[in-house]
Amino acid sequence: MAxxxxxxxxxxYFKVTDEGSLFETTMILDWKRRLVxxxxxxxxxxxxxxxxxxxxxxxxxxxxxLTISPYLPxxxxxxxxxxxxxxxxxxxxxxQGSGIPQAIASLDPxxxxxxxxxxxxxxxxxxxxxxxxxxxLCGASIGREGPTVQIGxxxxxxxxxxxxxxxxxxxxxxxxxxxxxGVAAAFNTPLAGIVFAIEEMSRSFEEHNSTTILMxxxxxxxxxxxxxxxxxxxxxxxETLAFGKEWDVVVVCGIAxxxxxxxxxxxxxxxxxxLAGRMSAxxxxxxxxxxxxxxxxxALIGLASNNTSYGSGYSxxxxxxxxxxxxxEGYGILKMTATLVSYVSGIPGGVMAPTLSAGAGxxxxxxxxxxxxxxxATIILGMVAYFAxxxxxxxxxxxxxxxxxxNHEMLLPLMAAAFIANFCSKIICPTPLFHxxxxxxxxxxxxxxEQPHD
Length: 454
Description:
By secondary structure, the protein is mostly helical. The protein has helices spanning 2-14, 19-68, 73-91, 100-107, 113-119, 122-137, 145-162, 167-187, 190-202, 207-228, 248-273, 278-285, 287-304, 314-322, 331-344, 352-367, 375-391, 394-405, 411-428, 433-443. It has two domains: 32-228, Clc chloride channel, CATH 1.10.3080.10; 248-443, Clc chloride channel (Orthogonal Bundle). Helix 8 crosses helix 9 and helix 9 runs antiparallel to helix 18 (394-405). It starts with a helix and ends in an 11-residue tail after the last helix.
């Protein structure tokens, strides 16, 4: 009797009158979902590639401006950041910052669907894309990977609504899959994309979501591979560390870079919560003027770094890994500071690529002290340790760096440095950066979107 009642409910839901039409309707709906799912994964990869190309174009234009005069950013960067923050607040609220906290916030089952629809809307994603590129065009120290995570989650969530995916998939599975595909396509690191979704986005692994995440990452990865070819983000390195006598650098990198990463995260969290005093009140009531001040500070840091602290830091990190860098000795600290200033200004942009670049600079500083270890190995250790210190996601850290440098020989040292850094980071910053920012984001009321006037 129970089976008959369930069967009748199913028939009523699909509005069918016989077994043949029930089977046919179910199959059509199933294939419709598959097509939407596959097209969504391909779309995430295409958008990630488009954002990568646009980001490189913007970075190239800005560096051409620097050849005219290194002092032009003193005007361009403050004006640009002020315009970006104004546009963000007026037309694209929810697009500010990395994008990862928004994606994490949308996974919380306690949150209303209204918040989920707001931060994962295609409108916000379009604004995120445009404003992130504009931020790089103005010389901000940001990455494109965080925005790609939010955009990827938005694409999968929006297409899931069209195909009437189950509620659980809409609220978690598709969002996780889109975020993972965004990381995989942006860095060309499919394994890191999967680990990122499990360790950083959800902090748990659910069997129900595993197939969705894996298939999305695979399809996005194939699309990226077909269009860009098989490449490693930072090229290939053959650096290794002899177990025992050279491992003192692993411990020191883990401790030093982990503490610095924790300090970076703690500062961002405190700023995001709101500091006490007149300065904090002025920041909250004058966000556009504050963004202009941040832009001016960024330009001063750029002058101090000999124009190396602007942008994502990809070329600087790659030159350090390749061993042909001509960067100032303080590059790591300057890049870390520039990324801090860029993030607190309120513009859309991620911290993942700048964090890797700053970590490479810190590793280069430590390589001067540990001459018994290969300099290239120390630089890679600095990258993974600082990244783990900032994100407190050690598995993602060593997997992403291992894939980006195509170096599997360094797996054990990278793992050790990442977990040491994670432990040290928690001493200064007890809660993970992105999850704390997501919680703060959920606790604040969403501003109304103002429609542009004709």
